[in-house]
Design goal:
The structure holds 2 protein chains of 2 kinds.
Chain A lengths: L1 E6 L1 E3 L21 E3 L1 H17 L2 E8 L3 H11 L3 E9 L6 H15 L3 E5 L10 H9 L3 E11 L2 E7 L5 E7 L2 E5 L11 H10 L2 E5 L11 E5 L8 E2 L4 H14 L4
Parallel strand pairs in A: 1-4, 1-6, 4-5, 5-11, 6-10, 7-10
Antiparallel strand pairs in A: 2-3, 7-8, 8-9
Chain B lengths: L4 E4 L2 E2 L2 E2 L1 H17 L3 E7 L13 E6 L8 H15 L3 E5 L4 H12 L3 E11 L2 E8 L4 E6 L5 E5 L17 E4 L9 E7 L13 E5 L9 H10 L3 E4 L1 H5 L20 E5 L5 H7 L4 E5 L7 H4 L2 E3 L3 H15 L3
Parallel strand pairs in B: 1-4, 1-6, 4-5, 5-11, 6-10, 7-10, 13-14, 13-15, 15-16, 16-17
Antiparallel strand pairs in B: 2-3, 7-8, 8-9
Helix pairs in contact in B: 2-3, 4-8
The chains are: A alpha/beta, B alpha/beta.
The structure holds flavin-adenine dinucleotide (FAD) and adenosine monophosphate (AMP).
The site of adenosine monophosphate has 22 residues of chain A, from strand 1, helix 1, strand 4, helix 3 and strand 6.
Chain lengths: 255, 324
């Protein structure tokens, strides 16, 4: 089983996000990038599949601050191959329609049985990459998955619907899957293991094909919403705030 | 290209998704600008009754026993054929477990532009403008609807579901289902939701915890508060994915929808996927150290206090006041 996992870095939402002078993009000067959370799950799912049924896990990512760390961490967790795409950065990505073409070119050479993507990142504007990539590669796609099993060339996935309902589906391989959650929480990794991987693992750089940006969304403006205008803010020492909350609960007849 | 706006009527096991109503409301705004009709696209088997009450000018119905349950391959191929022959100005889907993948695959297959996470549409200077919501609700992006058949995926929050309802029934036109070979994806069975010990949809008071709770051992503190209030504990997705609470206690897009009298959100950022499940709560009190956290947008009361400092105080005071 040949499994490719795509990992994207996204702006850390805990940090303040600023819009640049053009008014159409995030200011990248102070942007802190972190791994897209569901990609951590996609990687975990790939490693679980490998542990259960054997195979190779290849991690593919674009370039940018933090990409190396992500790749070495993936190696330390048990990934076999690390690929970094040169010429595509997370800060200034060309849109997913373009990325699908670029990634498909790289992935075709790997001849994967499964391509695992995160189901969604919080900053795409033209849909998730997974379905676009699947179409580009002529493969089927299913997303919102919280479980993947493979046996004798048959792949069974658990697709989530709202309210906790799920559907078990069977998908023909090769396929592209959008992972929402791995069957087990992503494994914990000691820093020492990552340091070790930095010494032993190799990152293979691939030059991205010159992206053709047709279909990229044209942004007119970007803005931050006025947050909290409707909320009454409770300030003061913790015991004062707690006292106010108790008052509010009493007003609602709950205490 | 026609001026009509198509809306995919998303339904699962006999129920139309609320995002379809929201999409119909948005489609109306676009249709008023283009002068076209709002066309509901209903794919399934024996589901024509679901079209009643939808604010569409007409319904295109494709009835096929094989489409009784959602089947990605079959739905995508069928809709691709429909879009090809009808060439609507826009096709709207919900950004949901079902809609997002159909929208993406259609866009890829037909080479159509896709505008994702559409929160609001409006007419401006002869253009149709779309505002998309990104970065967990912290950033909005405005773009012009591309001037060709375009696929749009809708998120809730901008348009009102009520504007997608109508008293008058739209005429239904049945079109034949295209021939379809063996699908590459097949439904095997449904797995029913886990029944938890508590039903968070029935509680008056919910204490919701998010990643701000930081450690598993702190969950107990929140549980103590929930108990003291005579309510129950619920959580955002990361808490559930960590295995700190059962999945029956997840609130949001993939979890439950709740409408308690009071929703006390502790260390929850208020990502759109979470807000979707709790925005109708009567009173929302949010505790979050980040003043820019989107949860303050849906909150009636907020505080930037550290939840770990506030919790012990709150537990003491609630216990002193006594739940009634
Ligand atoms: C397809 C899809 C479906 C999803 N479905 C759901 C869903 O159904 N439900 C859901 O919840 N999420 C869902 N998510 C995930 C969602 O996008 C967010 O990632 C998630 O809701 C964030 O959870 P959180 O608020 O607990 O964590 P974070 O976003 O990390 O927020 C933690 C918050 O805690 C605050 N904080 C930190 N420390 C403290 C402290 N000491 N005191 C007070 N505040 C503190 C921080 O300021 C921050 O705002 C889904 C995602 C995807 C892609
Ligand atoms: N630039 C990228 N580099 C690597 N993987 C990506 C990139 N963009 C998207 N992906 C993958 O596609 C998934 C969905 O992201 P998005 O398309 O941004 O919603 C991510 O979780 C990744 O698995």
């Amino acid at each position: 089983m040949n499994i490719a996992v795509l990992i994207k870095l996204v702006p850390d939402l805990v940090e303040e996000l600023e819009i640049d002078a053009t008014g159409t993009a995030l200011d990248t000067t102070w942007l802190r990038l972190i791994i897209n959370e569901v990609d951590e799950h996609a990687l975990e799912q790939a490693l679980l599949l490998k542990e259960r049924g054997g195979g190779d896990v290849t991690v593919v990512t674009a370039e940018g601050d933090g990409a190396e760390d992500v790749l070495y961490a993936a190696a330390a967790k048990g990934s076999d191959r690390l690929i970094r795409l040169r010429g595509i950065s997370f800060e200034d990505a060309p849109g997913n329609h373009t990325l699908a073409r670029v990634f498909a070119a790289v992935l075709r050479d790997l001849e994967p049985d499964l391509v695992l993507t995160g189901v969604q990142a919080h900053n795409d504007l033209d849909g998730s990459l997974g379905p676009l990539l699947a179409e580009e590669m002529g493969m089927p796609y299913v997303g919102y998955l919280s479980g993947v099993q493979t046996e004798d060339g048959v792949c069974r996935v658990m697709k989530e619907y709202p309210g906790g309902l799920a559907a078990e589906m069977e998908i023909a391989l090769p396929a592209v899957l959008g992972i929402q959650a791995s069957e087990e929480p992503p494994r914990y990794l000691a820093i020492s293991r990552i340091r070790q991987a930095m010494k032993t693992a190799t990152i293979v750089d691939r030059e991205a094909e010159q992206p053709d940006t047709t279909g990229a969304p044209g942004v007119i403006s970007m803005f931050t919403p006025e947050v909290g205008e409707a909320a009454t803010m409770l300030t003061g020492a913790d015991d004062e705030v707690a006292a106010r909350i108790v008052e509010i609960l009493s007003e609602q007849g709950l205490l | 290209m026609s001026d009509d706006i198509h809306v995919f009527i998303e339904h699962l096991r006999g129920e139309v998704a609320e995002i379809t109503l929201i999409s119909l409301a948005a489609a109306r705004v676009i249709a008023e600008q283009t002068g076209g009709e709002v066309v509901g696209v209903l794919l399934g088997h024996d589901v024509q009754g679901l079209a009643a009450g939808l604010a569409a000018d007409r319904i295109l119905s494709i009835d096929d026993p094989a489409a009784g349950d959602y089947s990605p391959d079959l739905y995508i191929a069928t809709l691709a054929g429909l879009i090809d022959s009808q060439t609507p100005r826009a096709v709207l889907f919900g950004d949901t477990s079902m809609g997002a993948e159909i929208a993406g695959c259609l866009s890829g297959r037909l080479g159509l532009p896709l505008v994702g996470r559409c929160h609001t549409v409006r007419a401006a200077d002869d253009q149709i403008r779309v505002v998309s919501q990104i970065c967990g609700g912290k950033i909005f992006v405005e773009s012009a609807l591309p001037e060709s058949t375009v696929v749009v995926s809708m998120v809730p929050g901008g348009h009102r579901p009520d504007d997608g309802r109508s008293e008058t029934a739209a005429p239904i036109e049945t079109i034949p289902a295209p021939a379809f070979g063996e699908p590459r994806v097949a439904l095997k069975r449904y797995v029913e939701p886990e029944i938890g010990e508590i039903d968070i949809t029935k509680e008056d008071v919910l204490v919701a915890i998010g990643r701000g709770i930081q450690l598993e051992e702190n969950v107990e503190l929140a549980e103590e508060l929930a108990q003291a209030l005579g309510g129950a504990l619920c959580a955002s997705r990361p808490i559930i994915d960590q295995g700190w609470l059962p999945s029956s206690q997840m609130v949001g897009k993939s979890g439950k929808r709740v409408e308690p009298k009071v929703y006390l959100a502790l260390g929850v950022s208020g990502a759109p996927e979470h807000v979707e499940g709790m925005a109708s709560s009567a009173t929302v009190i949010a505790v979050n150290t980040d003043p820019a956290a989107p949860i303050f947008d849906v909150a009636h009361y907020g505080t930037e206090a550290d939840l770990l400092d506030l919790l012990p105080e709150l537990i003491d005071k609630v216990k002193a006041a006594g739940a009634g």
